[in-house]
Design a protein that fits this description.
Radius of gyration: 18 Å
Low-confidence stretches: none
Distance between the termini: 51 Å
Structural class: mainly alpha
Shape: globular
Length: 193
């Protein structure tokens, strides 16, 4: 399994499984194909787990927990013959991300600051304050997004669940990332001597 996890194509496939989870689940449920799709998803998530174990950086543990959660949901869904459990994966991902980002606010260096210091080890004091604020913004995003993901999973409308978790949430996340990048660029220009 370790050799399999290091192949570039497998790395790409495992990343795609994580991102395309809502679309795969919706497809499997709509076409009664989860009996063959679940083992493939579980195998890809297992390979993802082995890949992430080799990575360094502040997000390694998060990626491991997310892969384990997806694997556990695949196994539980298969054993319990309850594919509705798969709908809770986006909720789990948001909870994990909230826990990681939120708990880092009580440390000397929030997660966003740790990530920022990879590119800029000598972060300006204004940058330190900014990264703490960005960490709070991401926490708020994970609370709102996770709550909506939970609503869509409990409500059970597959079109709504797929639309939110497979498209709208990604668009909002991308918008937040792009907006944060633009604000950071302006802040960096203003702080330059």
């Amino acid at each position: 399994m370790r050799a399999l996890g290091s192949l570039p194509l497998v790395r790409l496939a495992t990343g795609a499984i994580v991102l395309a989870w809502p679309l795969l689940v919706a497809f499997g449920l709509a076409h009664n194909g989860l009996h063959w799709l679940l083992p493939v998803m579980a195998l890809m998530l297992l390979a993802r787990l082995f890949q992430v174990r080799k990575q360094a950086g502040p997000m390694r543990g998060v990626l491991q927990i997310v892969a384990l959660a997806g694997l556990a949901l695949c196994v539980a869904s298969s054993l319990l013959k309850s594919h509705q459990l798969l709908l809770f994966y986006p909720v789990v991902v948001n909870l994990v991300m909230l826990a990681v980002f939120g708990s880092s606010l009580w440390s000397a260096m929030p997660l966003v600051e740790r990530i920022a210091r990879i590119r800029e080890p000598e972060l300006h004091p204004a940058g330190v304050r900014y990264t703490r604020q960005v960490t709070r913004v991401w926490c708020l995003f994970f609370i709102v997004n996770g709550s909506i993901a939970l609503f869509t999973a409990v409500y059970g409308d597959m079109k709504l669940w797929t639309a939110w978790n497979g498209a709208i949430a990604y668009l909002l996340m991308g918008t937040l990332m792009a907006g944060e990048w633009l604000v950071r660029r302006r802040l960096m220009k203003r702080e330059q001597p």
